Amino acid sequence: MDHYDPDILTEEAFQKRFHYKNPTDDKWKIPQCAIFSCEGGVVGGLSGVKEGLNEVKSSLNHYEIQKWNKHTTFVNPSGKVLNVLRRRIQPELSTQAWCKFHELLSYGNVIPTNCGAGDTLCSVHLCEAPGGFIASLNHHLKSQRPNVKHKWVGNTLNPYYEGNPLSSCIVDDRLISRTLKSWCFGQDNTGDVFKPEFMDSLSAHCHNEFDDATIGLVTADGSLNCADKPGEQETVVAPLHHVEMLDALQLLCSGGTFVM
Ligand SMILES: C[S@@+](CC[C@H](N)C(=O)[O-])C[C@H]1O[C@@H](n2cnc3c(N)ncnc32)[C@H](O)[C@@H]1O
């Protein structure tokens, strides 16, 4: 900790953690019947918050994008963290996602409690290119829990499938090209989690890779380019989050961890 600028350590942005508890009336129970069977609606005061947020975002419209990027890079304290990490530990993939997952792993509770020395952690990583979460998990296990074995399966839009629009794929394939056997791109090789047959392919892939062992950790970090609809980011990514959630619930063992 001595190496970090004290301003960074006290930065409010690094203290943001929220704890949620199932209300006593059990409102959060997963419905036993068909899901999404009622009309959608507006939640409490959220539509007002959305309007306010988009109004603030619009007040930036007249700034030149390069100038604005320069400014946000300059005032972003996380940028300094990445530089220190690059110099000190040279992560396999030094990206913001690597740091994000390292932070989550450091808080604890991500690796299931029953996964101890001599056990094998089986993990699945949805929408994962270029693979920062996987590299970060590998680093954490090797350095903090060297006696835990690790098997993993990754998925993402296949950057080698020419039918996938380049704009939706991450072209950085440094990890994927070296670990191709561990990636599941589905029957049609697109890697698209929306394809109806994808889940069957993924289950079969995990079955082979994990020798029937249960899956203790699923991550899903899917995102889409919302540049043409910046005010509707949540609506645009909601279907992807929905599919990721359904896949994770089918894959995970009881007591496993889901990071979305
Ligand atoms: C923010 S990146 C994930 C970063 C990753 N967690 C990491 O640590 O490097 C979002 C990913 O979602 C993927 N993605 C978007 N739509 C997808 C879909 N329909 N099926 C599979 N992957 C998708 C993108 O290709 C991209 O790789």
From TrEMBL:
Biological process terms in GO annotation: 7-methylguanosine mRNA capping; methylation
Residues that coordinate or bind S-adenosyl-L-methionine: G131, D221
Ranges of residues in domain Adrift-type SAM-dependent 2'-O-MTase: 92-260
Keyword ATP-binding annotated: no
Pfam families hit by this protein: FtsJ
Catalytic function, reaction form: a 5'-end (N(7)-methyl 5'-triphosphoguanosine)-(2'-O-methyl-ribonucleoside)-(ribonucleotide) in mRNA + S-adenosyl-L-methionine = a 5'-end (N(7)-methyl 5'-triphosphoguanosine)-(2'-O-methyl-ribonucleoside)-(2'-O-methyl-ribonucleotide) in mRNA + S-adenosyl-L-homocysteine + H(+)
Gene Ontology molecular function: any one: methyltransferase cap2 activity
Keyword Hydrolase belongs to the record: no
Enzyme Commission numbers on file: 2.1.1.296
InterPro entries the UniProt entry points to: Adrift-typ_MeTrfase, mRNA_Cap_2O-Ribose_MeTrfase, RNA_MeTrfase_FtsJ_dom
Keywords: Methyltransferase, mRNA capping, mRNA processing, S-adenosyl-L-methionine, Transferase
Top EC group: transferase
PANTHER family: CAP-SPECIFIC MRNA (NUCLEOSIDE-2'-O-)-METHYLTRANSFERASE 1-RELATED, CAP-SPECIFIC MRNA (NUCLEOSIDE-2'-O-)-METHYLTRANSFERASE 2
Protein name, entry field: Cap-specific mRNA (nucleoside-2'-O-)-methyltransferase 2
Taxonomic path: Eukaryota, Metazoa, Chordata, Tunicata, Ascidiacea
